[in-house]
Design a protein that fits this description.
Jelly Rolls, 10 strands, 0% helix, mainly beta
């Protein structure tokens, strides 16, 4: 947690990207983590065209805002076509997957509670 209890302003370009091992063509930045904020983490995901994440569950909920691109997102038994400007809520424990569509990267902000997150991959081929 931010021990000084001070505001922090920085450029997202200065925050390193890490490849998401379970996904294909997917990277993530932890824009604001538990070292800064006590309640929520803000992450940025970037999926290259054709990239995605397999069907999986998380033990924490997800609030997402789509910044650019398009994707198919499976949530439970439903499949959604999402694009820039859309918002997505995924309850904890619900299976979900992503598949970037089109010619540009699919990018979104994902906010999650700062709690332990158990991730279980259900099917690596579902997206």
């Amino acid at each position: 947690m931010n021990k000084e209890n001070t505001a922090i302003v920085t450029s997202a370009d200065k925050i390193p990207r890490k490849s998401v091992q379970a996904g294909s063509g997917t990277s993530m930045q932890i824009l604001i983590g538990s070292d800064i904020a006590p309640n929520f983490a803000m992450r940025r995901f970037i999926m290259e065209p054709g990239g995605g994440m397999p069907n999986h569950t998380n033990s924490v909920e997800h609030e997402q805002f789509i910044l650019r691109g398009r994707a198919r997102v499976g949530i439970g038994k439903d499949i959604y076509e999402v694009k820039s400007g859309d918002v997505v809520f995924i309850p904890r424990g619900i299976p979900h997957w992503y598949k970037a569509e089109g010619n540009e990267p699919f990018e979104f902000i994902c906010v999650v509670p700062n709690e332990p997150d158990h991730i279980e991959v259900i099917d690596k081929t579902s997206s």
